[in-house]
Each structure stands twice: as structure tokens, then as C-alpha cells.
Design a protein that fits this description.
Belongs to the class IV-like SAM-binding methyltransferase superfamily. RNA methyltransferase TrmH family. By secondary structure, the chain is α/β, with parallel strands linked by helices. The chain has ten helices and eleven strands.
Amino acid sequence: MGEEEIRSLQNARVKEWAALRRGKERRRRGLFLAEGPHLVGEALHSGLGIEVVLFDPRDQTPEVASLVEEARGKGCSVQPVDRRVLERVCEVITPQGIAAVVRIPERPIPGFAVEAPEEDPVLMVALDGIQDPGNVGAVLRVARAVGVAGVLCGEDTADPFSPKAVRSSMGAAFTVPIRQGRLVDMIWHAKGVEPVETAVGEGVRYDRWNWNIPVMIVLGNEGRGISPEVRQLCRGKVHIPMPGGGESLNVAVAAALLLYEARRHRGAL
């Protein structure tokens, strides 16, 4: 609707958008990138604050054109850009014609820093040193499906708002309450919620644990597991049997099994 197309890669705004591929810049500015029609649509429908929607006017599929009009209808800033600009801003090699700069949401976590209500036991996840952003995003996707109260991401866990994590979450990063920081401190502030360590071949079998209490499932690093300082705060330990052998399960697979078992115990499935 009359917006002037940005074509230069040296444009100051293009440099600002491209800088959001770096975690430090995302945290400093409180912004992240949503790439492609699916994620831009999720951002628009989840009610997040959108700084600007970028689109390539020469690569407008019906889906992209519909999203651009929806963004305009919601009063969002819409900016046409050259394809080379999208390629510079986005992490994916072949952008899908649209992206959005979105404000990192701040959603409250029930049971965090307050006593958890007994009639609705809190179910949370804590990620301790998960390095692969794809794994972080996959855990968020499971967390949304199960309906967890929130996900805590330690300082040494991959940024849940990195482009790869956001893509892997399929938009779950937009709606699941997420808190980032020093995990030991965050666990201390989760009053009345019992942190449970996930281990390989140790502790109670996961389907025999009492999931009918406020609980936080702690998932550790893909290689070394849970850090000693976080392990000291855990009040229980569960494991998932692997009768066929193997070193361990993928962290997102383990999260899915544990979270759905917790929901089954609570009669929520």
C-alpha cells in the first residue's frame, strides 16, 4: 500500500534485522525473527507484538499475499524488500517470501515464585545445557501439545528464540511460557514444585513415579546429562527403560514420553 521497497543490503534497517540472528542482539533488543508463512501466521494469530513484516513482492504466493493483508489489517508495519534482503536477514538458505520481526513474549508461569495450587498440580520443564536449538524447539513443541505451565531454559541452553529453535518449535515458542536465566536460581523460585531428574538406568521407572504432584521435569545436556549443581536441587530421579539397548533417548523424545505419562496419571488424556 505504497511502501517503498528496500533493496540495498547496506540499508541500516536491513543490518538491524540481520543482527537478530545473533543471540546477544536478540536479548539486548527483546526481538526475534519468524521466518516463512507458517511462523509469520502463528505470530499474527498468537497476538504477539510484531515490529515489522518483511515480504518479497516478486515472490507472493496466495498464502504470503493473504498474510501481508492480514498484517496490514491488524495495523502491523509491512515492508516490501528485495529477495536478497530476505536472504540476508533470514537464516534459511531459501526464504519463503515472508518473515517478521517479533517481540519476545513475556508470559507468566503459574506456580513460579508463588505456591502452586493443589487442585491443579503444575507441570513444568527445565532444560539444563541442551545445546542443539533443534532439540530445544522440539521440546517446546511437545510442551505446547501437552499443555505445560512453562519451560525454564538455563544460561547454557540454546536460545529458544534462535531461528532454528523457533522453526523446530513450529510456533510453540510463541505461546509456551518461557523463562531464561540461571537455572539454579529459577528452580529455587519455583515454590512448591518438585524438580525431578531424568537419568539413564537410574531411579524410579517413569511410569511408576507419582506424577500427581506439582512437578518440574529436568532434562540435561545431550552428552553429560544434568549438571551437579542442578542435580543437588532435584528431589527425585526417574528413568525410561530401553529394553533394546542404546546409550540414551533423544531429549525431545524423552520429554514427550515423560510429559504424556504425567498427563495420563492425572487423567488428562
